Amino acid sequence: MYSHNMVGSNDIEASKKFYDATFQAIGGKPAIVDDKGRLIYMHKGGLFLVGAPIDGEPASIGNGCTIGFAMENPEQANAWHDAGIAAGGTSIEDPPGVREGGFGQLYLAYLRDPSGNKLCALHRVV
């Protein structure tokens, strides 16, 4: 069902620095920039885009919205988290680690990107 996700940004250069770092930390490549200035990331069959809102209004975060990225292991989640902080992101929620819940054990790490979008690195612990 999932095809892609796009978040808004009011500072494309700060977003590029942040997302290039987090995707490269998990084996991805830097953004492709299209003719409209949008950042396009392709990794493991997923498509993630960053751009200024097309309606000309400022970008804003979705209250209650979290975008999750699948991680291969806790070490990859930590590398993603560390790269995000170093590239201008903010660590939020509890520190990276295992949480118990209705879906079993999950290793989770949360960040906000430079525009305030909430992101999560998730590894299902077996």
Write a concise keyword list for the protein shown above.
39% strand; alpha/beta; 126 residues; four-stranded mixed sheet; 21% helix; 2 helices; globular; 8 strands; 2,3-Dihydroxybiphenyl 1,2-Dioxygenase, domain 1
Account of the protein in words:
The protein has 126 residues and is α/β, with parallel strands linked by helices. It has a single domain (5-52, 62-124), classed as 2,3-Dihydroxybiphenyl 1,2-Dioxygenase, domain 1. It has helices at residues 12-25, 74-86; strands spanning 5-8, 32-33, 39-43, 46-51, 67-70, 90-101, 104-112, 118-124. Strands 1-4-3-2 form a four-stranded mixed β-sheet, with helices on one face. The protein has a four-stranded mixed β-sheet with strand order 5-8-7-6, with helices on one face. A hairpin with a 5-residue loop joins strand 2 (32-33) and strand 3. Helix 1 packs antiparallel against helix 2 (74-86). It is globular. The protein starts with a strand and ends with a strand. The model has no long low-confidence stretch (mean pLDDT 94).
What does this entry show, briefly?
With 126 residues, the chain is an alpha/beta fold.
pLDDT averaged residue by residue: 94
CATH architecture: Roll
Number of strands: 8
Strand proportion, as a percent range, falls in 35-45%
Order of helices and strands: EHEEEEHEEE
Q: Main β-sheet, in a few words? A: 4 strands, mixed
- Spatial order of strands in the largest sheet: 1-4-3-2
Span from first to last CA?
25 Å
Q: What percentage of residues falls in helices of 4 or more residues?
A: 10-25%
Pfam families: Glyoxalase
Protein name: Putative enzyme related to lactoylglutathione lyase
InterPro entries: Glyas_Bleomycin-R_OHBP_Dase, Glyas_Fos-R_dOase_dom, VOC_core
GO molecular function: lyase activity
